[in-house]
Amino acid sequence: MLLDEPSAALSELIEALHESLDDYQDNLQRLHHDEIAEEFNGAMNTRCQLVSQLEQDAERYLHLRPRAADSDREDFHHLWSKLKSLVIDEQHILLQERAEQERHLISLTARCQSYDYPQLIIGQLEQLHQHLTDQLKQIKTFQQST
């Protein structure tokens, strides 16, 4: 099924959000800093709820079905992250990757906010944008303190 531009943008955002949840799960297994792990776990739980609701409403109002994850890309990203952590401090790498991913998600969310969606989805995009912005600020705080 071909998607119009707004639906394609929202589909791309939802897929990227799912990838970010997978990355958070992986990061939690690799982190050795309790405060950061606790923050990541809380962010992951909040994001999971936001994504679930956005996905349900996108299907309900836009008839948008989630795409299958690109497992090859996820596997490559995971392997690349592990290789980098052999050379550079793993916590530094994790925080840098988290910040990059949050900026990318903020960009995708802003793109979606430029389209006309049902008001409910617009509100969810605003909540998501705020969540991502808050999380990026928290990651930057962790980067400065380590």
UniProtKB/TrEMBL annotation:
Residues 7-34 form a coiled coil. It comes from the Bacteria. InterPro entries: Ferritin-like. The keyword Coiled coil applies. Keywords: Coiled coil. This is DUF2383 domain-containing protein.
